[in-house]
Design brief:
Layout lengths: L2 H11 L16 E5 L2 E4 L4 E3 L3 H4 L8 H11 L13 H13 L4 E7 L2 H18 L6 E5 L8 H6 L16 E4 L11 H18 L3 E6 L3 E2 L5 E2 L2 H13 L4 E4 L13 H5 L5 E4 L11 E6 H5 L20 H16 L2 H19 L5 E7 L2 E6 L10 H10 L1
Parallel strand pairs: 5-6, 5-7, 7-10, 10-11
Antiparallel strand pairs: 1-2, 2-3, 4-12, 8-9, 11-12, 13-14
Helix pairs in contact: 3-11, 4-11, 7-8
The structure holds pyridoxal-5'-phosphate.
Length: about 400
């Protein structure tokens, strides 16, 4: 379809995500993607530096993953997952638990990061419910982003992105995220204050169903980085109060932080972990919520009452599972972690150059991530500077 015509049709029929259509510029029509590049319908190519919302771990249209999906599609494209199973799901569940901390053993499938988080919340809530303890409050962190379904939005209520829905939210206790940066002298004090406040909450509040955190990096909240030691202390604290530690590794998973998962990097063991985005190498929507046998066993009973009432039409879609297995193979065979180490080294090198600029501050590095603030502009999605930067890079 010709560009002008197809953009008109887009405008006529499509409602885009997180978009104010009245003022937004026309969408760019992408016709193909190859490794790091996207090409538009006028032949212009773009470096996809945001890996299409952080999902694309091995480059666009990677032939190995494409082939694995094609092969699977000729065999079995989809089957109901309640009462049925299939090899790609079994293999993926085994492969993923083999590389996660040893306590994480039971895999629940859903379709995207938000649903992975919803499942985690429901599992945590019902874990206590099945033990005859009703607990309704979750601990989360300011500026967190856990998705845009209602439960996930509630957790993200510390940012103003979802304020219009706030009357729908359930009970959340919010704490500061100990955002740090290179040369941050007060970080230990900051961390201890936060941990002290969280401990007080555990002491006085027996309604806490779980604590959820984006370990090491808050992504959408502004690439806020915390230290390994904070994650270790936090994990110890949650375990001291026999509560549930939930890691949302939807963004940090699959190499972002320099190790396959942030929990591996921090040598901590959450009770529940949420994975999505890079899981299928960016090819298909799929997510996993993985938990311990201890939690899973609490859902067993002689009738449905204790079972988890959750499942989607496309739960554990075989094509998504085949893509994920192929992506895991690439992580294994292509020595990606050596490359990630090189990227991290390059970041340190580039940082030295950056630091010569007066306009930037709070530089921080974690694995493949290098972030900094631009002085005087604040951060967050409502600041004006992102639009300017976007225009600059498009030019
Ligand atoms: C940490 C984290 N959790 C959850 C989500 C939601 O994932 P999705 O957009 O696939 O629903 C995101 C998305 O950016 C995320 O960064």
């Amino acid at each position: 379809m010709k560009n002008s015509k197809s953009i008109k049709q887009d405008k006529k029929y499509i409602w885009h995500p997180f978009t104010q259509h009245k003022i937004s510029s026309e969408p760019i029509k992408i016709v193909s993607g190859r490794m790091t590049k996207l090409k538009d319908d006028k032949g212009k190519s773009y470096l996809d530096l945001i890996s299409s919302w952080w999902v694309n771990t091995h480059g666009h249209s990677h032939p190995y993953i494409a082939k694995a999906i094609y092969k699977q599609s000729k065999k079995l494209e989809q089957v109901i997952f309640g009462g049925f199973t299939h090899d790609p799901a079994i293999e993926l569940a085994k492969r993923i638990t083999d590389i996660l901390p040893r306590n994480l053993k039971k895999v629940f499938f859903s379709d995207n990061g938000s649903t992975a988080v919803e499942v985690a919340l429901k599992i945590a809530y019902q874990y206590w419910f099945n033990k005859n303890k009703k607990r309704k409050t979750f601990i989360a962190f300011k500026n967190a982003y856990h998705g845009d379904t209602v439960g996930a939005m509630s957790l993200g209520s510390g940012s103003d992105l979802f304020s219009v829905f706030k009357e729908l939210f359930f009970k959340i206790k919010l704490f500061d995220y100990p955002s740090t940066w290179c040369g941050d002298k007060n970080i230990e004090e900051k961390e201890n204050k936060i941990l002290f406040k969280i401990e007080n909450e555990f002491k006085k509040n027996n309604d806490i169903a779980g604590l959820i955190i984006e370990p090491l990096v808050q992504g959408s909240g502004g690439m806020n980085i915390c230290r390994n030691i904070f994650m270790k202390k936090l994990s110890k604290l949650v375990k001291k109060y026999n509560n549930l530690l939930i890691y949302d590794e939807v963004m940090t998973g699959f190499g972002r932080t320099g190790e396959i998962f942030a929990c591996k990097k921090t040598k901590t063991q959450p009770d529940i972990i949420c994975l999505s985005k890079g899981l299928t190498g960016g090819f298909l929507p799929l997510s996993l919520t993985i938990t311990t046998n201890k939690i899973y066993n609490n859902f067993l009973g002689d009738n449905f009452d204790k079972a988890l009432a959750h499942g989607h039409s496309f739960t554990a879609n075989p094509l998504g599972c085949a893509a994920s297995i192929a992506s895991l193979n690439l992580f294994k065979s292509k020595k990606i972690f050596k490359k990630i180490k090189i990227i991290e080294k390059q970041h340190h090198f580039f940082l030295k150059k950056l630091l010569k600029l007066n306009s930037i501050e709070k530089t921080r590095i974690c694995g493949t991530i290098l972030a900094f603030n631009i002085k005087g502009f604040g951060n967050g999605y409502k600041a004006m500077i992102p639009e300017e930067i976007k225009k600059f890079f498009f030019r």
